[in-house]
Amino acid sequence: MAMRHLRPILFPAVLFSLLATGPLRAQSDALSSDVKKDYRSIRDYFVRAAEKMPEENYGFKPSPDVRSFAQQIAHVADDQYNLCAPARGEVRKEAYRHIEETLSKKADLMGALKQAFTYCDAAYDALTDASATDVVHFGKVDKTRFEMLNWNLWHTWEHYGNIVVYLRMKGLVPPTSERTPMK
Fold first, then answer.
1. CATH number of the domain to which 141 belongs
2. Is residue 15 in some structural domain?
């Protein structure tokens, strides 16, 4: 008999508690968390791909009219600064293509690439769903912090796609295609 009296109270209480968790989930930074996760994935894949290519193939170009492998790595390193600086509320102090125009050796580029990603890490780490709509300045245009970091994300994936071709042409398996042992 007591259970029947609890049903009218229990149902609204359970419904209220389920509905009340909605705002809590919204506060968990779901969108910025996804962008951060995707950024960490491409950052790690890109570094691993750059490490895989032997030094003697850093000058390789699949065609004379495209960037060499080294220039691809340098370009992505440059754009970590170019695209993440506005998201950090900063202006890059070096020229837009500084790394691409000054470095070509694997060891130098690996250091520059890792340093550039570390610079960008701070921009992604600071991103929240609330700060994503903050307006930042990129040259003569205004964009949101999210737009800048999302641009960096897809731009890095785009160039990862380029270097995958370079790796394949040299008989190397890109990190995203490596098989993991079955357990």
1. 1.20.120.450
2. no
Residue 17 forms part of a structural domain: no
Q: How far apart are CA 62 and CA 39, in angstroms?
A: 27
Q: What's the predicted TM-score (pTM) here? A: 0.83
Q: Which residues of 39-68 are buried (b: 16+ CB within 10 A; e: fewer)?
A: bebbbebbbebbebbeeebbebeeeeeebb
Inside any domain, residue 116: yes
The total of other beta-carbon atoms located within 10 Å of residue 36's CB is: 17
* 135 within domain boundaries: yes
pLDDT in tens, 2-53: 555 544 444 444 333 434 444 444 457 888 999 999 999 999 999 999 999 9
Residue 115: give the domain boundaries. Answer: 30-173
How many distinct structural domains can be found in the chain? 1
CA-wise closest residue to 35 among 84, 77, 79: 84
Question: What is the rounded end-to-end Cα distance, in angstroms, of the chain?
Answer: 53
Max CA separation in the chain (angstroms): 85
CA distances from residue 116 to 84, 119, 145 in whole angstroms, order as listed = 9, 5, 18
